Amino acid sequence: DALSRDRVKHLEQACDDLKNELTIATDKVSHLLGEKRVSQENLGRADKTIDLLNNDKDRLQKQVSAVSREFEKRVAALEDELEAEQNKVLIKRKKTQISRSDLMRL
Predict the structure, then answer these.
(1) Strand positions, DSSP E, the chain
(2) For residues 61 and 71, what is the distance between their CA atoms, to the nearest angstrom?
(3) pLDDT class for 106, splitting at 50, 70, 90?
(4) How far is residue 66's CA from residue 78's CA, in Å, rounded to a whole number?
(5) How many CB atoms are located within 10 Å of the residue 28 CB?
(6) pLDDT, position 104
(7) Report field, pTM of the whole predicted structure over 0.90
C-alpha cells in the first residue's frame, strides 16, 4: 500500500526529527552541566578568596590593635614626660617667686 508506505515514511521522518531534537537537547544539557561545573569551580575559588581575605582582615586587625596599644603606651609616656616638665616649671616659678619676695624684703 502506498498509504502505509507514506505513513511509515512519515513516522520515520518524525522519529528522525525526534532523534535530532533529542540530540540537540542532550547537547544543551551537556553544555549546561559544563557551565554548572565551571560555576561551581568559580564558587569554590571565590570561597577560597573570601577565606584568604578574611584571614588578611583578621591579621590586619591584630596588627592595628598592636599598633594602637603601642601608640597608647607612647602617648601615656609623653603625657608623663609633659607632666614632669610642667612640675619642673612650677617648681622653678615658685623658687623664682620666693627669690623675688626675698629681694623685695631687702
Answers:
(1) none
(2) 15
(3) low
(4) 18
(5) 10
(6) 75
(7) no
